[in-house]
Amino acid sequence: MMLRFNWRHIPLLIVAAYSLFPMLLLLMNAFKKKAEISKNPLGWPKFWTFENFSRAWQQGHFDVAYMNTLIITGMTVVLVCVLCGFAAYGLTFLSMPGSGAFLAYLFITMSMPIGFIPIFFMEIKLNLINTYWGVIIPFVGGAFAFNVFLLRAFMLGIPKDLLESATVDGCGAMKTFFQIILPLAQPAFVVVAIFTTLSSWNEIFLSNAILQTDTMKTVSVAYLNFTSKYNTNWALMAAGGILTVVPMVVLFLLMTKKFVSGLQEGSVKF
Question: Which residues contact 144 (CB under 8 A, 6 or more apart)?
Answer without folding.
Answer: 80, 83, 84, 87, 106
